[in-house]
Amino acid sequence: MKPSRSTWIILGFLAILVSAAVFGPAVSPYGVGELSSNRLTPPSPHHWLGTDLHGRDLLIRLMYGARISLLVGFVGASISLLIGVAYGLTAGYLGGRTDNLMMRAVDVLYALPRIVLVIVLISLFDLKLKNLFDGTFLTAFANHARLLLLFVGLGMVEWLTLARIVRAQVLTIKERPFVLSSRLIGQSTPVILFRQILPQVLPIVITYLTLALPAVILEESFLSFLGLGVQAPLASWGTLLADGASMLNPIDTPWWLIVFPATALVVCLLSFNLLGDQLRRLGTDSGR
């Protein structure tokens, strides 16, 4: 079954979003940290989305925030994909007592509040990582240690569902004739896993990736909103929302500082979720 028109529309929108995040700050007439006297001005022909408290153009900051949020989403989801696929393949193929032990470990991890684990990870290792980088050839990364922890932390808590899905598929696939034939001719376990079984589960893995991306982006935005995620001079949609929320008051509310970052976040998450739903339906229809 061919992708529907709505699928192509969603892909086109996401391509525009990624292009704006990657190339937008470079072609904008305003710098990311450029200050001006036009503080808290509403949307106008000069500043399409208005300016913030320091006179910075909100549109350029929104595109720069998209770059960071999408980067965390892609890297975190990729890490979770690698861990989940490897774990699920191993548990499903080995089976028996090993499979039971590995799945019980997944059940235990499911019972833990995952976002709290990320917060604990950041709290424990943020300063240590900065001190480790400082004074070495990695000094340039010392101020971005929190970003590295977000990559690792969010990636390491999002793989559980994928591991279960892959394991369930492998339990069925490993009993099919082509896998049994591979065993009979003496192919090694890694060859069977990566050449015979992995291609069969790739459609599910790709669909999961489109669903894990918005989950990681949302968690990063939540942490950044609380001040536990991305730190200055970097900015993400979460930090922009936090900046806008700090300006709320009953006298004069700069609504654009909340509305535009929130809209960008919601539309991005909705697009990825719709894409994942479209891919799931495509895979279901093609399997009939």
N- to C-terminal separation? 10 Å
Point out poorly predicted stretches. Answer: none
Element-by-element helix/strand order: HHHHHHHHHH
CATH architecture: Orthogonal Bundle
Structural class: mainly alpha
**Estimated radius of gyration:** 22 Å
How confident overall, as mean pLDDT? Answer: 84
What is the total number of structural domains?
A: 1
Helical fraction: over 70%
User: Major beta sheet, specifics?
Assistant: none
Count, helices: 10
User: How would the global form be characterised?
Assistant: elongated
Report the strand count.
0
In short:
The chain has 288 residues and is mostly helical. The protein has helices spanning 5-27, 58-94, 96-111, 114-133, 145-157, 160-173, 177-184, 189-225, 237-246, 256-286.
Please describe what this structure looks like.
The chain contains ten helices and no strands. It is an all-alpha fold. It has one domain (5-28, 47-286): MetI-like fold. Helix 6 (160-173) packs antiparallel against helix 8, helix 7 packs across helix 8 (189-225) and helix 8 packs parallel to helix 9. The mean pLDDT is 84.
Layout: helices, strands, pairs:
Layout: H1 5-27, H2 58-94, H3 96-111, H4 114-133, H5 145-157, H6 160-173, H7 177-184, H8 189-225, H9 237-246, H10 256-286
Helix pairs in contact: 1-2, 1-10, 2-3, 2-5, 2-6, 2-8, 2-9, 4-5, 6-8, 7-8, 8-9, 8-10, 9-10
Keywords:
mainly alpha, MetI-like fold
